Amino acid sequence: QHKSADGSSVPVPKPIPLESAHSLWEAILKLEEKTLFGGQSLDAAQRRRQVLLITRAFDSMGLVHIWSKETEEDVADWKSAMTPGSKELLEQSYITIHHDMQQAYAELLFANGGLSPALVKDSDLKWNRAFVSAYLSNKRDRDKEGTLDSSRMYALEFLIEHMLRGNMIPQAVTLLQDERFIKNRMDMQGWEQGTARHVKDTKLLYTRLKQSKESGSSSSLEPTEVALAVFEKITEFLCNEMAGVNDAFLEEGCRCIHEMGTSMVEMKCRDQALAQYKIALKLLLPRKVSFAYVEVYSVGVVLLESGDIQKGLETLEGCLHGAQSNNAIFSRKNMYCRALQKIGDAMSILGDYAEAFKHYDMALTAMYEESVDNRLLIGTVLHSKGRVLHKLGTIQQAIKEFEDGTRWKTLELGDCHFDLAMGHYWTGNAYADLDKSHEATVAYEDSLRLLKLNINHASEEEITARTRLVEGSFYKVAGDHAESLHAYRLALECLQEHFSHNRERIADVMHMIACVHVLMGDDAKARVMFQKSLKERDDGESNADAANSLYFLGCVYVRAEETDKGLSCLSEALSIQKSSLPDTDLMADTLTQIGAIHRSRKDFEEAMKSYKEAFRVREELHGTDDPSVATLLQEMGELMHVSGQLNEAMTYFNECLIIHRRSMNVGDVLVAETLYWKGDTLLALKEYKEAASCFDESLRIREATFGTSHPSVGDSLHKLGVAEYKCKNNDKALHCLFDALSNRKRRPGNQLGISEVLADIGDVRFSNEDFMLASQFYTDCLSILLDEYGRDHQSVGEIYTKLGATRAHLQNFEEAKTFYQRGLLIWKVKEGDVGKKVAGINRCLGILGYVTGDRPQAMKYFSEYLEICKVNESQPDVDRVRVLYLVGKIHEKKGDDENAHLLWSQAYRMYAVNGFSVSHPDLGRDLSKSLEAAESVGASFFQTVSKGLFQEVVAESDDNDASNPDRAQLIKTANFIT
C-alpha cells in the first residue's frame, strides 16, 4: 500500500472471483516450485491440494472473506467450489483479501523465519520490474491521447521508486536525468513538491549505488557523480524557469536549489553545496536581500562543518550583520539566533569561551521574547552552552543546561523524538564525570531508546556513529570496558569512513578510546590514542579538549614513570588553560599533578608552588569549606611531612580536618586519612600519645566504614602499634601489630607490608628483652626483603643490624659480628663512608669487640665512629659519651692512663654540658669512678685537665641555678679534680 505525497492512500483492489484467486495461486506455485519445494515438480492434483491449503489457512485466520455474488452471503462450504462438477458454485464465489492483515502476517512470518527471504526478495524484484515494464509498454498509447490519467500521475510520483525496487538502476539513472520527465513531474506536482520527490529518489538511488559498490559490483556508475548530475539537471531546469518570474516564484525556486544544497552536504559534497548555495544567493540578489541571508547562513555552516572555522566564522558574522538590519524577517525565520548559536559553536572550537557564552546568551535573550515560537532552538542553544560548560569542568551547571535544553525541546517535539537523543547522551556524560553511575545509565538508556525508535531522522551512517558512541559510554559506566572499547572503535570507524571532515568528532572518540585503555591498565595503547587525538585536532587549536587530552596523556606518562614526558604534557596543558581558559577544576587537577611530580623528585619548593596555585583555584571556584580544598591542604601537609617540615605539616593537617569535619560526616574516610597522616607527623615529632590518639580514631573510622579486612585498617593498626610501642605500652603494641600482620597476610602480593610489621614486632620483642623471639621475627622479615629487594637494599642492611643486636644479646658474638658487617657494607654503598648509619654500626662493632676482648677490633671501629662524628660535626649524644668512655677503658687496660683520663674527661664534659645526667645517671657514676683515679696521675695530666675545666663547664651551662643537678654534679667533680 503506497502513500502519495499529500498523504492520501492508493485504493486497494476490489473483490475478485475466487476462481481467479485460485488460478493466481496455482500459477505462483508453478512459478516458484524451485524456491518453495526445493526443485521438486508438482502435478496438477498436487497443486490443487496446495491451493486448497492456502485458501483454508487464509480463511481460518480471517485474512480473506469468501462470499457469493448472487446471494451476497458467505460461502460456508467453499471446499465444494473446488471439487469437479462445481463450476457454477465456483463462478459465483468471490474473495476479498484483507491486505493490511495479510501484510502484518507476512512480516510476522518473515521475522520468525517462516517466510523465505529469497522468496520475499525475488517476488518484490519481479513484481516491480513487471509493473515498470507494463507501464512503459502502454505509455506510448496514453501519450498519444494527451491525457493525464491517474496511472500517469501515479507513475510520475512513484515510477523511479518501482525501478529501484526492481533493481533497474540504469533505467532509473536515465529517467531521473530525462528533461521531459523532470518537466512533467514539476508541472504536475509543483516546483517544491516535485523537487522534494526528485531529491528523495536521487538519494535512494545514491544509497543503492553505494551498497552495490561496497558489495564489490563492477558497475561503472559512481554514486556521487550520478547524484550531482541529477541535481545539476534540476538546477538547470529551475534557473531557466525562474527567468522573469515574480518574487514568490523566485523564492520558491531558490528554496528548491537550497534543498539540493542541503542534500549535497549530507552526501559530504561540501564544495558543490557551497556552489549550490551561491547560485541561490546570486538569483536572490538584489531583489530579495533579506531572504539571501538564509543562503549566507548556510554557506557559513557548511564552512564550519568542513573544518574551515575562520572562513565560516566570517561568513556567519556577515549573516548576523544582515540579520540585525532585518529584525522582523529574521525573528520570524530564526536566522539571527541560529547565526549567534553557530558563532558561539565556532568560538568554542577556537577556545574563546567567553565569546562563545556571549553569543549563546545573546541568542537566548532574543528567543525568550518569543519563546513559544523558538522552543526547539532554545533547547539547541542550551545544549551547546552545556557542552562548553562541561568542557570547562563546571559539571553541575552543565547538567542544568542539558536538562533545561531537553525540556524545551520536549515541549516542541514530545518525548519520543530523535533530536532529544544526544541531549540525553551529553547529560549522561556529565553525570558519569560526577561518578553518578545510576543517573548516567538512565540518560544513556533514554538516548539509545530514541536513536532506535527514530531511524529515519538522519542518515544510516549518522545513526550508527551516534548509537555506537552512546553504547560505548553506557558500557563504560557499567564497568564492561571490553564492550565499551568495541563500541567506541565501531563509532570511530564509522566517523573516519563517512565523516572524515569532522576532525573534532573523530578526536573526541579517540580521546574516549584512550580513556578506556587507561581504565583497562593498557597505558601503551592509551598513550597512542591520546597522541592521535591531539594530532587530529586542527593545527594551532588550543582549547579545553586539547588541554584535557594533554592532561590525561601526562598522567599516563607519570604512571609509566616517564616523568619528564609527563611534566612536559602537563605543563603544555597548563599553558593552554592559563592562556585561553578561565580557572577550572581541570586546571587545579593539572597543577596538583605537576606538584606531585616535583614532590617525587624532591623538588619541594616547586611542588609547594604548584599546590598553592591549585589551592587558590579550588578556593575561588568552590569556597573555603569544599572537600576539594581540604584535599589540597592534605597534599600540602604530606609534602611538608616528607620534606621534614613537620610543624608546617601539622598546620595543614589541622586546617584540613576543620574543613572535613564541617563539610562531611565526622566518620568519613577522608577524615580518617588526614588523621592517619597527622598521627605519622606526630610520631616524627615524638608526640607519641597524641599520635596514638590520631591512629586510634583513624582505625575506628576505617573499621566502621570498610570492616576489619580492608588494607587501610591494617595500615592504621600498624601505625597504632608503633605509637603504643613508643609510649612503652608494649602489650597493646603487640596486640595491634599482630592484628595488622593478620590483616596484611590476607592480601596476596603484600609481602613488603608484612615485612614492615614483622620488623616492628621484632622491635617490641627486643624491648621486652625477648631476644630469641625478636630474632625470629627479624629473620622472617629478612627472608621477605631478600626475595623482594635482593642483598643490597638498605632495608636489608637495617634488618642485618637488628639481627646483629639480637645475636649479641644472646651472646652469639660471631653471628652478631657477621650480621653487623653485612649491614655495614650495604650502608657504606648507600651512604658513603661517613654516613649516619655507618657510624652507628661502627659503634656497635666496637662495643662487640670490647665485650669479646678483641681490643684491636674495638679500637678500629670506635676510631672510625669518632672520626665520622668529627667530619659530620655531629651533635653530642649519649652514644658518643659511651664510646669515649670505653675507648678510655681500653687505653687504661693497655696501661695508657694519660690518654684514658683525657678521653674520660672529654666524655664527662660532654655528658655534663648536654644534661645527660637525668636520663643516664649510671653513665655519670661510671665516669666519676674512672676520674677518681686522677689522684695517682702525674702533673702533666693535671696541667691538661684542670686548666680552665671548671670555668669551661660552667660557662657552657645555660642554667646557673644551684638546684640544677647537672650543675651540682659538675661543681662536685671539678672540685674533686682540682
UniProtKB/TrEMBL annotation:
SMART domains cross-referenced by the UniProt entry: TPR (SM00028)
PANTHER family in the record: NEPHROCYSTIN-3, TETRATRICOPEPTIDE REPEAT PROTEIN (AFU_ORTHOLOGUE AFUA_6G03870)
InterPro entries assigned: TPR-like_helical_dom_sf, TPR_rpt
Signal peptide: none
Protein name: MalT-like TPR region domain-containing protein
Swiss-Prot/TrEMBL keywords: Repeat, TPR repeat
Pfam families: TPR_12 (PF13424)
Transmembrane segments: none
TPR repeat residue intervals: 547-580, 588-621, 672-705
